[in-house]
Amino acid sequence: MNKNERLEINNYCFVCGKENPKGLKADFIFSNGKAKAEIILDKEYQGYMGIIHGGIIAALLDEACAYATISLGYYTVTAEMKIRYKNILKVGEKVIVEASAEQVKSKLIQANAQIKDSKNTIIAEAEGKYIIKEKIEKS
Question: Could you name the CATH architecture of 29-135?
Answer without folding.
Answer: Roll (3.10)
